[in-house]
């Protein structure tokens, strides 16, 4: 249980003032999206792709198996369908091919031009293979580059040292979209590029991009367009969520995990076929498969998490755990679970035939990418960014790696490991009403860099605790706030709290709109308890 942060009494006027501080420069509009030609090398990439179309060259697109990569691949696929040009599309299989464009992937490619979305920034071997075979390679990515770059036709990545694009925290699908906007101009096409905003919203939210600046505007408009998009996939999503208005949290918690499950457990082509389906029947069939895979993913993830927790060593600043045969597709999620539970960066590795391959997640302001880079000499490969990364090494290096990365981490200021915890304050009981919901909606979408506001319930007493769900694994804690007349029900998913009635507690909670069978109510979610 953590120490309770300071928080003052709060009414709606004070809450609005605090939320306004997050957007001191005002809300961005779609018209504020910087000119795509300002993205370093994007005009060069677009001109080459357009030339390939004019010359009827063979073009192959190589995507990635996470939501951002699959969505970027779907966006480009739909663009080429719209211009009626044949495009060969490959999304590497996590288990057979590994990550991104690689020598093994290129064995299946026979093209004049290859370009990537959401991968490739460290594709040195692929660059050499393309040169040997006379294929030109364009890389579009958003991950952090190494000190040296692959020798290719051109690279488009806002993280390049010389890139001065005005808004750099964009995902792979956004980079792909910006390049396609320039391809459209090069070919003088009449295509509404705004039709792809629902896909961009999906990618931005799933890849945990900051929901400020142009990202906020793109997600806001993308969510709105999801409600009317003619793409069969979004019709299925609407039916599944059954809401009059979609939120970023609906995407992050309900849709993204399902799309991710294909690449995690089987093959991302299942998700790509869902997003690009031409009929409702096709989309529904793929979505059913995604649902089944997501259920399997949850079960596998629970087992690996339990084994990983048992390995955690006290006193380590970076948790490094590994297991023979752990499913590669869930190690990233398990790393997140460890971070949440122990408050430390976590690296979770799967062992297979003498090699260790896995994912890392961070916390606070600690750059897991830089920590991993400090051990580069031990690694077979790595890549990522501040909060998340992937890596591979020989199994025999694991214990030495664990020791050395913790030695480096021990030099980091302990404050860097503490996530910034923003509590808006203590709401007066009378403030929890429909007007509060309306105020909060004005600042959506909530997510990275614009978290859903959290409030403090101080010295409240517990009236009762009920358990919900088929497995009775969710809690509903009924509290009475100080000075309150009506009790409040706080819901906690996947938590079974046990506490006696009339116990005094301090806790944080969030407030959102709950829509069920056409009825709208205030939903309060229990966040955490404090000392």
Characterise this structure:
By secondary structure, the chain is an alpha/beta fold. It is 37% helix and 20% strand. The protein has 16 helices and 17 strands. The protein has helices at residues 12-22, 42-54, 67-82, 103-106, 124-133, 172-186, 197-206, 213-226, 232-241, 248-265, 269-275, 280-311, 331-342, 368-373, 398-409, 434-441; strands at 9-10, 59-62, 88-90, 113-116, 136-140, 154-156, 319-324, 346-352, 355-361, 379-384, 388-394, 426-427, 454-468, 474-480, 488-492, 504-516, 519-530.
List keywords for this structure.
16 helices, 531 residues, 3 domains, Diaminopimelate Epimerase, Chain A, domain 1, 37% helix, five-stranded parallel β-sheet, 20% strand, inorganic pyrophosphatase (n-terminal core), single chain, OB fold (Dihydrolipoamide Acetyltransferase, E2P), alpha/beta
Characterize this entry briefly.
The protein is α/β, with parallel strands linked by helices and 531 residues long. It is 37% helix and 20% strand.
Topology readout:
Layout: E1 9-10, H1 12-22, H2 42-54, E2 59-62, H3 67-82, E3 88-90, H4 103-106, E4 113-116, H5 124-133, E5 136-140, E6 154-156, H6 172-186, H7 197-206, H8 213-226, H9 232-241, H10 248-265, H11 269-275, H12 280-311, E7 319-324, H13 331-342, E8 346-352, E9 355-361, H14 368-373, E10 379-384, E11 388-394, H15 398-409, E12 426-427, H16 434-441, E13 454-468, E14 474-480, E15 488-492, E16 504-516, E17 519-530
Parallel strand pairs: 1-12, 2-3, 2-4, 4-5, 5-6, 7-8, 15-17
Antiparallel strand pairs: 8-9, 9-11, 10-11, 13-14, 13-16, 14-15, 16-17
